[in-house]
User: What shape does this take?
Amino acid sequence: MNIKKNYINGQWQAAVKGATRDVINPCNAQVIGIVADSTAEDTQLAIAAAKSAFYQTGEWRRMSGPKRADFMYRIADAIKARLEELAVLDTLDNGKPLREARCDVEDAVACFRYYAGLIGKPQGGVYEVADGFGPMHAYCVHEPVGVCGLITPWNYPLLMASWKLAPALAAGNCVVFKPSELTPLSAVALFEIFDQVGLPAGAANLILGTGPAAGQELAQSHDVDMITFTGSTRTGQIIASAAIGNLKKVGLELGGKSPNIIFADADFEGAVEWAMIGVFFNQGQVCSAGSRILIEESIKDRFVARLAERANAMTIGSGLDDPDIGPIVSEGQLHKILGHVQLAKEQGAKLVCGGERVTEGACAQGYFIRPTIFDNCTRDMAITREEVFGPVVAVQTFKTEEEAIQMANDTPFGLAGGVFTTDGARALRVMKELRAGVTWINCYNPTFNEAPWGGYKMSGYGRDLGVNGMVEYQQVKQVNINLKPGPVGWYQR
Ligand code: NAD
Assistant: This one.
């Protein structure tokens, strides 16, 4: 098997210590790839390459906007040309159903195109300023931050890479990217594309390896000007602490325990369908998953029964066969989920369906778990407070709008939330009170490149996507111009 290498300064390079790690297909526990297993030494080489490309060569940041945009469009076209191959890679690596992986690749293409299109659009401003020093004029420009470290999780391998790489590069930064060690294969393919389109050496560098060994150096190095991270809240805290040494800019997209609030007047079947999408899409391994269903008491029994009927009917199997539910990404993650299930049972939640590993047929070789619903959940249970990151939903009931809002906000997280009702004014009232960065009314989970994405509270800070996503990777410089050069008489009063 070909060993996939780091990409540093435009060259494919083995890890300095020569170490490698296996990449596992979660569908059958087979090895599907071997990749470099880097350490801080490799990361330092990548940082040095990005630093030199940004501060010395400067080719990427000085490139004209249209030319940089042209690179971004060509990257998008090349991703599109390899759509099926990239979708299969993410399915093999992560386990997700193939149609979902295809959507991810389409979204990645759109993301590069979106940020290509933003290059050169009006930014900054021109200001009328006070004339105490004589006639003055001021304007602001947006400039790249410099060397950016980007770290992503495994749940959307290519898409999370694109959410970070596209705006960071569009803004003119030089980057070092570290994907999750569990799902590195599509990242390697993406860097093959960067190589193929001829991105200037050092503008984009790839480091393969684990977080503590290879990633943390990006957070702590004084040569990195910014770190953006998507992953768990615990790792986000480690990264924020490690980043403090040089006060680098930090962006954190972290975990969630998001409420999906369903009122009795909602369109019933629509709410069931969206609740399914909210919690079982991508095997529930979605940061914004509607993993707490808060439902008005009067329709709870009917709703839970219908949800369980739908969940029990879901097909489970290899992502390549395009089932409703594929495997969990790794054995470790599977056991973590089963641990949450066990604890929920011990704490008195009522298991309605699922809750167990699939041990029959071909699924026995992989890391499959049945879609799981817990009823009678209360605010003090871990299942309503902690992120499971799997196909597990906790159902809680409410009687009033006020109670629903209180329950919705009663976690340390604030990433996402949804509300289902046919009362428009109520939908907007609830939205106004929800402490979350990404919200939906009468739908759950649709995400768009055009709109900023990120969390409140312990779900992080900073935003991916949209114009805000580009601004994250920029500094704002103020330029003040004296329109009447010469002494102003300030010291001659
Ligand atoms: P994780 O925190 O374990 O790992 C994420 C990345 O961080 C990986 O690349 C990992 O190698 C790296 N890492 C781990 N320890 C590190 C360290 N000490 N220093 C530097 N890097 C380190 O998360 P995960 O299990 O890969 O992903 C699941 C989590 O991601 C969930 O909590 C989920 O909610 C979150 N997530 C959030 C969003 C969002 O937009 N808010 C999107 C997707 C996933």
